[in-house]
Amino acid sequence: MAAPDFPASPTVGQTYTAPSGLVYTWDGQVWNTSGGVASTYWTDTGTALTPTTVTRRVAVPGPTATGADMSNLIVGSRTIKGRLHSRADADYSTFMLNRYWDGSAYQRDDATKPAWTLALDPTNDNATFVRTPVSGAAAALLTLDNGGRLTNKATACVVHNNGTNQSIPATTWTPLTMSTNGGDSSGGVLPNLPTGLKAPATASWMIIAANVSLTANVTGYLSIEYFFNSVWSTYTYSTFYQIGQAVTTVIENPPVNTPLRTSIYTLTAATVSWAIIQAAVLGTQ
Question: What is the per-residue pLDDT for 182?
Answer without folding.
Answer: 82
